[in-house]
């Protein structure tokens, strides 16, 4: 999970949400509660938020990734519009742009109607998750900080420690370790270079290896927080960076 910045809400949402909200509220009054609105009528009343303008704005703000697990839903289906505070419990927030997140189907289904008003979880648009989580091999863990309880609840509610995420993390971890080994090899070759020409070539090779591994940490890359965590604890990476900077 990475920190996200919201785009400006779609103009159509801004222009029409008051009327949509009013119509939904009238139905709630008519039937006694949101739950009691006939399903067909309810779906018609709430359908307006589920449109391409909203989806495109969310996709842009999250680099096309799920806000929770950082997978890229378009690789296996469409991104879903998640209500951070569930519309079943907070119908007044059904059309609120600041209540939307882009989510994959798995995270959306896992979170379901969890009441984030009663049991909060991390909303990456509002809270920077960088200091809330760390990775132990392929498992995500809550940091021992003032956000520990919030982070643990987020992991539980969104299903961030499941086989569906362990597998891609394991595949990336293999790549990271291969890149890390290539950096170690290039560092050793640089240390053994006995001419300026050889040294220049080895510095170039080392810089290319560093650039390759750093690309995996870009916010636009899937599971980038996992990759960042790996590099932040890699002695080989920091040693190589220092050698290149001093070359």
From TrEMBL:
Entry-linked CDD domains: HNHc
**Domain HNH nuclease positions:** 53-109
SMART domains, sorted = HNHc
* Gene3D superfamilies found in the cross-reference section: 1.10.30.50
Q: What is this protein called?
A: HNH nuclease domain-containing protein
Q: Which organism is it from?
A: marine sediment metagenome
Q: Give the lineage.
A: unclassified sequences, metagenomes, ecological metagenomes
